[in-house]
Amino acid sequence: MPSQDNPNQTPHSAAADLYGNNLQKNTPDQRELEAHVLLKSAKFLNDIQKNWDNTTPEVLEETLKYNRQIWMMFYDTALENTEGNRPNDLRSNIINLANFIFKREIEILASPDKENLNILIGINREVAAGLMTKSKEEATDTPPTPSDDINDQNNKKPLDSGSLETSA
Questions:
Q1: Distance of CA 156 to the CA centre of its chain
Q2: Which of 33, 81, 152, 167 has the fewest CB atoms within 10 Å, counting from its CB?
Q3: Which of 52, 47, 39 has the alpha carbon at shortest distance from 123?
Q4: Which of 60, 66, 87, 72 is nearest to 17 (CA)?
Q5: Do residues 166 and 122 make contact, with C-beta atoms less than 8 angstroms apart?
Q6: Cα separation of 17 and 19, whole Å?
Q7: Measured between alpha carbons, how far is 61 from 66 in angstroms, rounded to an integer?
Q8: What residue ranges define each of the domains in the chain, with the CATH number in brackets?
Q9: Are residues 143 and 137 in contact, defined by beta-carbon separation less than 8 angstroms?
Q10: Residue 116: is it exposed, middle or buried by C-beta count within 10 angstroms (0-12/13-18/19+)?
Q11: How far is it, in rounded angstroms, from Cα 140 to Cα 148?
Q12: What is the pLDDT of residues 8-43, one digit of tens each?
């Protein structure tokens, strides 16, 4: 059912807008909001992967476009915030990661294969986890102890094969 604000809006995008608006109202931290948006995109990509045989090219393209828009936001912010609190190497890593994602999406659109979605899903989840971890650390104002790092490494799930190791 299309939204009353935009009669051309699909049910999928209307639900995503409603989710996003609700999330913004109930999530005060920008990093946590970014993490939730990345997880939402990873879920959409994972849903397509699970239902690959019934996925139309239009749905695949729309979902990849949604993911690309998220990463364009990160890319633009990294380019524009030269005086921000992000170090240059982090900004550079964000730009390089976004460029990788853009190239992978083009490859997927040119030659659709559900296995190629693994890397996008994995990157979104890993970056979201990093954003949420930072958010929690900032909220408690206590640095992680070495034992926390060891526990995190022991509980960390590896990305699928062919993935990049990232640290957020």
A1: 18
A2: 167
A3: 39
A4: 66
A5: no
A6: 5
A7: 9
A8: 29-141 (1.20.120)
A9: yes
A10: middle
A11: 14
A12: 566 666 666 666 666 566 656 888 999 999 999 999
The structure tokens 């959409």 sit at 44
pLDDT, one tens digit per residue, over 71-104 is 999 999 888 877 667 778 888 999 999 999 999 9
Q: Are 41 and 70 in contact (CB under 8 A)?
A: yes
Q: Please give the Cα distance from 151 to 18 (Å, whole number).
A: 36
Maximum Cα–Cα distance across the chain: 54
Q: How is the chain split among helix, strand and coil, in percent rounded to 5?
A: 75, 0, 25
- pTM for the model stands at 0.64
Answer for the pair 108, 117: CB distance below 8 angstroms, yes or no: yes
What does the block give as tokens for 14?
């209307």
CA distance 161 to 137: 30
